[in-house]
Amino acid sequence: MNFHKALMELSHSPAFINRERRHKLAALTALCAKMLDVERVSVWQFPEQREHLESEWLHTPDGSSAKSISLYQSGNPAYFAALESERVLSVPHAQEDPRTRDFTPDYLAPRGIRSMLDAPVFDGARLSGVVCLESTTYRQWTLPEISFVIAIADTISLMNTHEAWLDSKQALEYATRYDSLTGLLNIKSLRDRISYLVDKFERRGLGSLALIWVDVDRLKSINDGLGSQVGDGVIEEIGQRLKQVNVPGKDLLARIGGDEYALIIRNRTQPDTLEQTASKIRHEVSKPIRLNGHILSVGASLGICHLPGDCNTTEDLLRGAEAAMYNAKQQGRGQSCFFDSSIQVSARSRFELENDLRVAINEQKLDVFYQPITNATGSSVESVEALVRWQHPERGWLSPIEFLDIARGGGLMYALGECVLRRVCEHWQWARNHQVMLPEVSVNLAPEQVLVAELPRQIRTICAEHDVPVKSLHFEVTEDALQGDISTISRILEELVAAGAQLSIDDFGTGYSSLSRLKGLPFSRIKIDRSFISNIPDDEDDCAIILSILGLAKGLGLSVVAEGVETEAHKEWLCEQGCDYLQGYLYSRPLPFDQLVERFFANK
């Protein structure tokens, strides 16, 4: 607590916030050296080529320095491999440890360095550098010390993110036209470019384009098996490969959501040329990916649609390329498929599901299940989270993973959110009328909702229609939703709080951008993403990260919910560390409203 309090006081002070980067690095490394009583603290970064590390700042008892020193992977393979696989390196005996002993003759021994502790610095989901502590005495690094160094490294990660944001001449343009994870253009930019080219072709009476829809195969299994952080790393790496691929007629590349990208090919749209282009893209995507100590292999399914020829409008081109991609997947993945009329039937299934969902939203036919959130000991239900479900008339119950992407692609997320809130209010009204005392209800807000100025008024209106106090609701906002215009987001969230609601950051820890904005946004709770919970208490890295999050939360006066609590070991460790609330299958799966009431509130 003392460690994190000192860091919060430093990083939130105007004197720190308004200073140049080198002054911030000097202050952070000096604080780290003082709090942990260590002689040398340095900050290193990967250049674009990533074959070596370059020192950016070094703090020593004799003073600080920005002199650049390079450390090459070729001469220190064990150390670089450990950075990628272990991330946090706790090394009590640096001169003998296999990961660091290559440094001994020329570096460690001459300087009398006995112990090292390295923590990663990130750029988004990408490892971009390291904070290195070097002690002249033998140190068995403790979890609080590791947690503090991770927090220092995260602060530098935030500085990197903030500086990248400031470097953009048009911050709002970036937020609305670019994908925050990969830095590629988004689907809005893609649509605008296609529309521009279509108008140009019509004016001139000549020209053609092809849209190649790229879907990464096997990403879901990577997310399920290794966690969303690894999945995000794969998405970013594939985006960079597609950005660098050199193919004839390449015009614009965009990430259009999830694991999907789209590439406009202009004029060079002959079938043979496109076949070669598709083959080159599949080859680049299929190259092994080294990430977090894993060697991963993915493939890609491609759909190709022409304009003119296959279609004449922007939306038809997008739908045609997507339909062709789904047809390629049905042929066995790792394939390329050109659009033609024969695949319209298979594409129609997805479009029909979108239409069915639109009808279900308009007719208020979506349902809501609830998952309890308990106190730290699991002895009482403190709140419940509302989770949307859909009983399709032909396909039966559908979970969000089966229709939210369709809702997002069809521009239905705002209306879907309204439908969910109305159902929650109906349930709350029924409970009050039947003397059932429900606790606070958490409702998820999609990124598409928190940028709409009318959201607070809509929520107040729906609550008033059902005589539900806004203070009975707790809205959860994912970190992705905080990527947009901060002034608009802040105003909307402040209005919700003023109306009586409380706010949580959902899936916390899967990104870094929200950390830099915490102090300016009215959140009262953090929800730690389930990917950090599944391996505790055995995974030392996950334990250190959770301790860091708990420390940051306590320093900011926020309560913490741990998601994905499934075992007694999870519960006991989190309870010992002071986590406020627990949520997961250990206590209950999401339940229909009537089952929730019967199981938890019928006798209250």
Provide a descriptive summary of the structure in words.
- With 604 residues, the chain is of the alpha/beta class.
- Helices cover 44% and strands 23% of the residues.
- The chain is globular, with a radius of gyration of 26 Å.
- The model has no long low-confidence stretch (mean pLDDT 86).
Index terms:
single chain, 604 residues, alpha/beta, 8-stranded mixed β-barrel, 7-stranded antiparallel sheet, 21 helices, 23% strand
Strand order of the largest sheet: 15-16-18-19-20-21-22-23
Strand count, sense and closure of the main sheet? 8 strands, mixed, barrel
How does the helix and strand content classify structurally? Answer: alpha/beta
- State the helicity in percent bands: 40-55%
Q: N-to-C terminal Cα separation, in Å?
A: 38 Å
Low-confidence stretches: none
Average predicted local confidence, pLDDT: 86
Residue share in β-strands: 15-25%
Give the overall form: globular
Rg from C-alpha positions?
A: 26 Å
Tally of helical segments = 21
Q: How many β-strand runs?
A: 24
